[in-house]
Amino acid sequence: MKRFLFLFILIYSIAWEAQSQIPGFFMKEDKRRVILPFYASNSLIIVPVSINGAYPVNFLIDTGVRSNILFSKDLGDAMGLKYTRRLNLMGADGSEQIMAQVSPVNYLDLGPIEGIAQSLLVLEEDFLELESVVGVPIYGIIGYEFFKFNPVKINYDDERIEFFREGALKWRPPFYTKKDLSIQSSKPYISAKVKQRNGEVLDAKLLIDTGANHGLLLNQETSEKIEIPDLNLETELGQSLGGTLYGNIARVDWVKINHLTQRDVMTSYPEETAFSYIIQESGRLGSLGSEILGRMRIILDYPRERALFKKGDTFYVPYEYDMSGLTVKKVPTDKKRFYIGSVRKGSPAEEAGILPFDEVLSINKIPVLIWELAEVVKLLREEEGKVVEFEVRRYFDDTLTKYEDFTYRIELRKQI
C-alpha cells in the first residue's frame, strides 16, 4: 500500500559552532556541476552518506525539513559523535516527548559532494521507523543545508542529482517552466492552482516536500475553501514523530504549475495536529509530495529564489491508490520480512479475511525474499480485477511458537 510519510518535526535553530568554516554542501572538485546518483523508493530520494569517515548509511534528501537529522543515538555513539546539548521535542500529537541531542561540526561525505561543519539533530529513539514503510534502511535526513548555496537539478527518471557550482545555471534551460520560489524558515514554497471536485479553484501556496510520499496534501484547517470530496477513504496516512497520522484520501480535478497540469491527483487530507498552528502561520494550504514531484524534472535554485519544472517520463501516468486495503510493512531487521500493518475497513482484504500482524510468506507464490516493498505497493494499485494471492503466517502467542499458515486470494478493486 502506498505510504505517506509526513515528517512533522518541530524546527529548532541549531547554533553553528564552527568558527573557521562556512557550513554548507560543496563540490569536492572545481567543476560546473557534479552528478550524485540516488536510489528512488516510491520517488523518495535516498543517498549513502558517510559521517566523519564512518561506513556510509542511507539518508533522505528532504526539502521539507530545516535541520539534518540522525534517527539513532546508538549509531551516533558508535560513530563517535560529540554532543553539546539535549533538546526536548514535541511529537505531532502534542503529547509525545521526544529527546534529541545536538552534535555540531560534522563532516558528511556524499561522494562528489561534501557537507562541511554540519550539525546533526540526533534522536535518542527512532520514532519514525521509515524502513518499515520505505522498505530499505533509512538512518537520517539531509535538509535545507544541501540546497542553500547551489542550484540542484533532480532527475527522478534517471535517479540522479546534478549539483551545480554556485553561480552556474543563470539561464532557464529549454522546456523548463519557471516559478518564483519563496524560502521561509528554510523551506521552499511555490504557488499553484488546484481545482477541487466541487469546481472551486484554489490559489494555493504549497510546500515543495521531497521527503513526503504523497501526491498533493491539503490542510483543511488552513482555509474554509478546502473541501473533502464525498468520495473519500478514511485511512492511516503515515508516521510522524508523535505516532501514526490519520485522515482522508480523495482526488482533486487537477493541479497546475503554470501550464503543467496533473489530473485526478490523489490528495491527502490529514487530521489537525498540535503543529497545525505552524502550518497556518506559514500561510500555506498544503504541500506537493514525491508522487507529483517524481513525475517531473525539477531544478531548485534557492540562491535565485526560483524553481524550474519540466515533464518527466511518467508525467501522464494515472494516479492510483491501493486497491487491496492492505498496509504492507517491512520488519526493520537485516532479514527481509513483511507483515500486514493494517487492513482498511470494507476493503477486499478485509472481506478475504486477512488480519493485521499476519506475516507475509509469499505473494503470488513468490517468496517475500524476492520482493521489494516498493514492488508490492505497485502491485496492489496497478490493475483493477487482478487477483493477488497472499500466503501468511498468523501467530497466536508472544513467543511466536504457535502459528498457522493461511492463503488468501484478494481481488483488487478501486475504492476511490
UniProtKB/TrEMBL annotation:
It comes from Algoriphagus formosus. PROSITE patterns: PDZ. Residues 325-387 form the PDZ domain. This is PDZ domain-containing protein. InterPro entries: PDZ, PDZ_6, PDZ_sf, Peptidase_aspartic_dom_sf, Retropepsin-like_bacterial. It comes from the Bacteria. Pfam families: Asp_protease_2, PDZ_6.
